[in-house]
Write a structure and sequence with these properties.
- The structure holds 2 protein chains of 2 kinds.
- Chain A is α+β, with helices and mostly antiparallel strands.
- Chain A has 2 domains: about 30 residues; about 230 residues, Alpha-Beta Plaits (2-Layer Sandwich).
- In chain A, strands 10-1-12-11 form a 4-stranded mixed β-sheet.
- In chain A, β7 and β8 form a beta hairpin.
- The relative contact order of chain A is 0.21.
- By secondary structure, chain B is mainly alpha-helical.
- In chain B, about 70% of the residues lie in helices and about 0% in strands.
- Chain B has 16 helices and no strands.
- In chain B, α11 packs antiparallel against α12.
- The longest helix of chain B is centred in the last third of the chain and has 32 residues.
- The radius of gyration of chain B is 22 Å and the shape is globular.
- The chains are: A alpha+beta, B mainly alpha.
- Chains A and B meet through α1, α5, α6 and β6 of A and α5, α6, α7 and α13 of B.
Chain lengths: ~270, ~425
């Protein structure tokens, strides 16, 4: 091979390579969504698809009435029972704002529309489905915890030790059957795994059966609501259209899908250390 | 032209003679690596629970800590190392040439250290190849994948660069090199042709140029973007991270090169190969870079203090007066004292290699702590103040594993010097 043809060959390879990479980059940046998000629509005819009256894709949202919440932590317990989360891990948790006109602020995952966690995931284990769920593929996660660092809401929990050795006390713990997404990705149930990230799934396995999340179902004062925003008659649509609401850290542009009503946003001032 | 001579005798000295210092330090480093291996085994069997890391938020900890800081530290040294070596080649700084290969080797081994730390930090090291498997899905979005790309590209380019520029010397020395490594020498000189030197020099010049450009773009970009693109945590977001990190990378790299070069001079009596003038130049560089780094620290804190949003100010306050001041203020003091020492040394035209070596070692360690002070505060003081302030103390597992990676880098460096010529031969003028 003469030097000239070798040079041309290198040029050709470089040009093709650069072309492939730029097309790939361009499409992924422009569409703003990851591959798996596009193909993970719900199974036709499933209960979840049926609940969305007239709309092909439901747009799920979660509403918390902080004015009604009595801080009984039943939602926290129901979540633990339903998902069998390991010791010290609370996918649904109750926060206690000190500078607000209410005492309790229930905190599930926000299932953001512009989730920072899915963007940073280096293996696409964290992804968003069209109906709104932000899910974790437990079998793909490498445990780098970047999602946890990128999330401003602190909803991610890492299994620092073997979770089987510290399952929540209840007899139903860990018995939740595997829930697999359309492309077979394990995103709920099936136990818990060392060294991976987990978080609230909005009980996707229940939604698919036409039920609401365990925390919503158990709430004794009906402070928690779950439903389809694309359905104007749904409970959540009604509440959102008739009441003032806020979302946490809205200024970050994460577009959270958890709406809080019945109070003003909590003041977020860190007391200065002197 | 410069007057130094790098004779075959000088170069062959570490290769042909095994000193007591070599054996003792190799034994110590191996022992440290063994302790680290045991610690990693503990971490593998029990999970990352054995580290001081925990969930932030209600968990009251931080999910990233000493490992990630070490990663950032290594990458900084690596990027700066190749920058020094490539500048020597591009600008034809002949006097500094004996440093070139030392800096290249430092780059390659630091990158290895960085890759090891990333794997150690991962909760599922068995799945680390998912980085490659899902590469095309994630390369558009994940700064960690950009990083992975950069570290790998850097590794490959610098390895090619090192290998190419070494061939000529190995060929020249072949007859006098120990025969037990013949296979290695044959491998690195594979396909060597008479008179390839000119072509190799050309290619190396272009490689050096692309490495320098990449370095500025990437060390001033990709690594800081891991943090600078995250508005979720206070204290990270912003454009200053690029130049800030780049300066930190170059400073720690110059300190690193001074350390390896000074030790080599002391151990092998290479005073005539690496002249005092070279060390003076390096210490001047170190002085200027440290001053710039201090100026960036000033920028960071004045921005947070003057009219900063409360979450940003809380972090600056914690560093200046609060819970983190016991770490931050000593770091600041060391940086300022180093500047004063280096400035006096430069102005007085007095020079002590030993004290310069000591300052460089202290600066290297200080920069590690400074890296921790980038990773830690933002996660300790969440923007969502409904969560408590967290706490973090690294455990023996983290300390021993990190020490083991440094030991690995040092031992690999020593072994390389035992097998291959660490400088270009340059006989007579």
């Amino acid at each position: 091979m003469s030097p000239v043809s070798r040079r041309n060959f290198i040029r050709y390879v470089a040009a093709v390579g650069a072309g492939v990479i730029s097309v790939k980059l361009g499409s992924s940046l422009m569409s703003g969504m990851r591959g798996s998000e596009r193909d993970s629509l719900l199974k036709p005819g499933s209960a979840m698809a049926a609940t969305s009256a007239g709309s092909p894709t439901p747009k799920y949202a979660y509403v918390v009435d902080v004015g009604t919440c009595i801080g009984c932590r039943k939602c926290v317990g129901a979540c633990k029972e339903e998902n069998g989360t390991p010791e010290g891990i609370f996918w649904m948790d109750l926060l206690y704002p000190t500078d607000a006109d209410y005492k309790y602020l229930p905190r599930p995952c926000m299932h953001c529309d512009n989730p920072p966690c899915t963007k940073v995931c280096p293996v696409n284990a964290r992804y968003k489905r069209r109906e709104g769920f932000v899910l974790t593929d437990f079998k793909r996660c490498i445990g780098c915890r970047y999602c946890q660092v990128a999330c401003p809401y602190g909803v991610n929990y890492f299994n620092w030790k073997n979770p089987r050795s510290s399952q929540a006390g209840s007899s139903s713990s860990g018995s939740l059957a595997e829930y697999r997404d359309l492309d077979g990705r394990l995103t709920a149930g099936g136990g818990h795994f060392t060294g991976v990230i987990e978080k609230c799934t909005w009980c996707i396995h229940r939604i698919e059966k036409g039920k609401v999340p365990a925390c919503v179902e158990i709430c004794p004062v009906k402070a928690l609501h779950f439903g389809d925003l694309n359905d104007p008659n749904s409970e959540v649509s009604q509440i959102i259209s008739k009441n003032k609401y806020f979302r946490l850290l809205e200024e970050l542009g994460t577009e959270p899908r958890v709406f809080y009503t019945g109070g003003y946003p909590p003041k977020l001032n860190r007391k200065t250390e002197k | 032209m410069s007057s130094y001579k790098v004779t075959a005798e000088k170069i062959l000295q570490p290769i042909l003679h095994t000193s007591k210092i070599f054996l003792v330090s190799a034994a110590v480093l191996l022992a440290l690596m063994a302790v680290g291996a045991y610690a990693y085994l503990t971490q593998l069997t029990q999970g990352l629970i054995v580290t001081g890391l925990r969930d932030w938020g209600m968990g009251g900890g931080i999910p990233w800590g000493a490992y990630i800081s070490t990663f950032v530290w290594y990458v900084g040294i690596a990027h700066g190392g190749i920058a020094i070596s490539a500048s020597i080649r591009i600008m034809k700084l002949d006097e500094y040439k004996p440093l070139a290969r030392m800096a290249e080797l430092l780059t390659i081994l630091s990158l290895t250290g960085a890759l090891i730390t990333i794997i150690v930090d991962s909760g599922r090291p068995d799945r680390i190849f998912n980085f490659v498997v899902y590469y095309l899905e994630t390369v558009g979005d994940s700064p960690l994948i950009w990083d992975f790309t950069v570290v790998l590209a850097y590794f490959v380019l610098s390895a090619i660069y090192l290998g190419m520029t070494m061939r000529e010397d190995v060929i020249k020395l072949m007859s006098r090199l120990p025969s037990k490594y013949k296979l290695l020498y044959r491998t690195v000189t594979f396909g060597h042709k008479e008179g390839e030197k000119e072509k190799v020099e050309q290619i190396a010049w272009w490689l050096a140029l692309s490495l320098v450009i990449l370095m500025a773009l990437l060390s001033g970009g990709v690594i800081p973007w891991i943090f600078g693109l995250m508005p979720s945590q206070a204290g990270w977001f912003g454009a200053v991270q690029g130049p800030y990190f780049l300066t930190g990378a170059l400073t720690s790299a110059v300190a690193g090169v001074i350390v390896v070069a000074a030790i080599a001079v002391k151990v092998f009596h290479w005073e005539d190969l690496i002249s005092e003038k070279v060390f003076k130049g390096l210490s001047k560089m170190l002085l200027i870079l440290t001053v710039i780094y201090l100026w960036f620290i000033l920028n960071e804190h004045i921005t947070a203090q003057y009219a900063g949003p409360t979450a940003e100010k809380a972090i600056s306050d914690a560093l200046l007066y609060g819970s983190l001041s016991t770490i931050f203020l000593p770091v600041l003091a060391i940086l300022i004292l180093s500047v004063i020492f280096l400035a006096i040394q430069t102005l007085r035209k007095a020079f002590s290699l030993k004290s310069t070596l000591a300052v460089s070692i202290i600066l290297l360690l200080t920069f590690w702590v400074k890296r921790l002070l980038i990773v830690m505060p933002s996660l300790l003081y969440p923007r969502l103040t409904l969560y408590p302030v967290g706490s973090y103390t690294p455990t023996w597992v983290e300390y021993t594993i990190i020490t083991a990676t440094v030991s690995f880098v040092a031992l690999a460096y020593m072994i390389f010097m035992k097998i291959f010529p660490i400088m270009e031969i340059k006989e007579g003028e």
